[in-house]
Fold each of these.
Amino acid sequence: MNWLAFALLAWIALGMQLGLAPLLSPGSGAVVGSFVIPVLVYIGLHAPPRSAIWASLLLGVLIDLTTPMTRADGGEAYILGPYAIGCFAAGHFTLAARGLVIKRNPIAFTVLCVLASAVAGVVAVAFFTARSLYPGDPIAWTPGTELLNRLGSALFTSVFALVLSLPLALLTPFMGFAHSGYGTHHHASGGGRAAARRHY
Amino acid sequence: MARTGVSSPGRSPLPWAVALLILVALLPLNWLGWVGWFAGLSETVLTPVSHPLRAAGRVFVPAPRREDELDADRLREQFEAEQLRRQQAELEIDRLTGLVERLSAGAAINTSVEVRQWPAPVTGAAGQYLVVRAGEREGVVTNSVVTTDGIQLLGQVEGVDDRTSRVLPITAPVAGRINGVILLDQTGEQRVACILAPAGDNTLRGEFQLSQDPITGQAVNAVEPGQEVRLLDNAWPGAAQMLLIGLVERVEPDENLGGLNRLVVVRPRAVLRQVGEVVVRVPLNAERSDRGQAGEGGTP
């Protein structure tokens, strides 16, 4: 995988996450769609497993670094790890599922994004909930509400995933994926690519 | 489910990275202060993308008003309304304080005549008359005396109906001549009588005679600009006596009569045609004397 291209893509996706996602949030702003998870799933669907996992982990770290948690006293705090591990799990989930889906199918891509987002959200909520058990933990945290918000965000991510599926598909030649054909990376031979071309 | 193909722990730093992140994720918050520095760095790196996108997004998707912003707006509006109410109350207090002072001053003049002072706004003009929103309902009668501020004489009510009355200012061209006295000192013991007529420019002009030094027989010109001229005219109701006609503006020699006669120009303290509020002095005994019936010393 071309890591420079990945860095550029991650930079743009995180910029969109910070700049656009809050504006497009429905309701009170508790449910926020993700521009980063579609990139994670896109990388997970196309990149070699090791690169995909590292990319997932990096994207998760960046989400942690750009998502402040609200303290009970009104301040903000950054906690490194919950979303990194959540995205790590989502990356694994994508790798496990990519053999079962048609990679370039926007619907499959969208469904994978919703599920991956839910996985990442659930793991992150689990970490934050575990942290909230510490006596005197200053983070304002209500697990049930947060879990519902994360699952709602996962559903809302489907909108972004559907919109991003086409531009991401167009970026594939520039990403330097060793295996960008139909099926799993084990079948990424010329025959696999030919099969993919025949499919679309 | 297919194998993901991630390398084994022994050959990759990935498991160590994951383990480290799990450990960090569970650290107490006061051990994670250093993360803020990396967060700031991330924000700095991402700002070139996020800021233009946010600015562009704001064009198409205006930010929804948050509940606390709405509360703040409501509180701001309440604060501004209360501030306006307070300023209006202060103005009203100032106005009423001034009114009390004027009425007190007016009541102090000629205390032998019992009058009720009725503040009333001027609603307009009808020819040379001012229309005042106070009429028979308020006890106003024809010939009621009207002042601007309790002391300064404005004129007399010439016509009255149920709710309004028409007042003829003393400076109106059709107003007749009035007798006054120029107070030569603060106590008012030394006076010079004068007869004044409206000059048409919000002043009154009239003649007076210089006093004479009893020893030398020379004229003593004691009348100077700034001295008060008060009404002392039996043609006017008792409630009007000693009210202020104006201040001496200048003294001129009377070329027609010569000798000790002089002309005095008196200017009221206000432009009588332009006052916004007046005080009607309503006699408590419903005095209805006409100017012509006033008796001795009336206006010739």
Note: The CA atoms of residues 118 and 154 of chain A lie 5 Å apart.
Amino acid sequence: MELVCRNLTKRYLTKTAVDNFNLTFNDGHIYALLGPNGSGKSTLMKMIAGLTNPTGGYVELNGEKVGWKTKADIVYTPTEPFFFGYMTIGDVADYYGDFFKDFDRRVFTELLREMELGESMKTRKLSSGMLAKVKIAVTMARRAKVILLDEPFNGIDLIARDYISKLLIRYAPEDGVVVISSHMVEEIEKMIDVAVFMKQGRLELVSDVEKLRAEENISLADKYRQLYSKEA
Amino acid sequence: MLKMMKYEARKNRGIYLIMAGILLVLEAAYLLLVHSHISMAAVVAVIMVIAGYVTMFMVLGNGVAMFKRDLRDKTGYMVYMTPVPPSFIVLGKILVVFISGTVLFSAYMLLAYLDIRIFADVYSAQAPLSAASAYLSQIIKNLSGTDTLISLLHLLACILVVVFVILCTAYFSVALGSTVLRGKKGEKFLSFLICIALLVVFMRITSLISGDMSGFNMDFTDAGFRFSFSGHLYREILSYIFGIAAGTGMLFATSYLLENKIDL
Amino acid sequence: MEFQNNKPIYLQVIDDIKSKILSGEIRPGDKLPSSRELAELYEVNPNTASRIYSEMEREGIAYTRRGIGTFVSESAEQFDSIREETVIEETRSYVRKLKALGLSDKEILGLVEAFLKEG
């Protein structure tokens, strides 16, 4: 599996959200997409997922340009609630099962059981922590090659976060890629391999997390501060 | 695409239930009144006919509004993240709207027609009481001509094609507003303007093909009800084909926009 | 497990496993969790987990049988060397800390004696 972003650009009337982004994502890794609000992380992910079209450059998955066909191998999970209003948890699973060949219903059912949630519960009525878990469950139950998670930990309590982290580690594909965008630099450091730093739409730096510690003796959070604090 | 349609229908079932509910209420009111207050019953029947048209508008309008919302709201992710070609997504949505609108409209008209027949039976035993009753009795007289069935078919074909074209063009202008025109000044006004402009162009071309600006005539005579084009049948069919082609063209344009200019 | 900020995570996990071996929580010959299970247990990246086992194999503390799993090494010498390593490291860091606080060699020795006398 190879995911290539070449000169990827998204220009709006008033701003350039992503500016000439070049990166190849290699399988078997968990990437973190880091940067302050407005640095282009969400827009980048949406372009990879085919939910937003670039104004320049392209994204290729295994040599094929991203389009409606590649959506079968890519899953994007936004921060906000996005299920249809009337849906129960079971409805969501049915929907994913209907449209995605890679959706494993057994895995989903097992996860629900572990989370102590029922299929008849209405998604509209779930707490943010429960909804976040359902979103992760339905995402990871799709054995997709490219898993894009947009701020999965936003507004989620510590226990739920720990659980979600465990799931990500458990189901991260060896022949695929997980990309997590997050503000919680310290919390995600342990579970990721490679950190991709973005600044104002541009790729600022790519770091191997363990190398950072071995060679520079600093943690990811320290590097983040280095790159983004006002004095820089 | 059928799966998409299934979920589209489910998403919109609220409005279907409301419209069906209104129909049932009106029908119940009519049946109760026709034996007691016949003039009131006539009013109800007229309301039912009007409500039929309103239902069609509501369902269509709701469809367009939902399409717009999906392109701007987070709920759009659910639809557009699926590996379904955008052309099928749009076609599926339009078919659901079209079919459900037509079904509800027909239900209203069918019940209204049956009610009028009941009215005829009851009325023949009484004297005219109100304007509505007089109007209905005229309609009954008109609906018994031999040309009626053919005319109704003409009318139906005409309505369906017109609705199809308007729907597809509306979807196209919504897509335009949410993609290419997004963020630009007067985006809503522009997309509306383009919609109207396109429809005017289509109408012009249609009347050219069918040969007459006021192409269709509705005649209420003692011989019955007649609906026809002043030109030849083949030109009428040609204009329907053009309508379908125009609508389809709008569909392709919409899916092109969704495939290449989408911005969720 | 709480991680420190400046040392590679995989080394810190190895230290933790070593201390568990020394304390007897894990015994020679015991089967260790699979790479994926280890990752989940310590909440670290799966590649980090593989690296942990590779490193432990390199140091001779563990060995992997393909298709079966990773096991703690049975040989006693390995554990003596781990113990020796750990002991030396602990003493070094202890002495360094006390020196940093300003204590002299004599004071340090005196402290240790007094502590040992207490028993």
Note: The interface with chain A takes residues 3, 5-10, 36, 39-40, 42-48, 51 of chain C (CB under 8 Å).
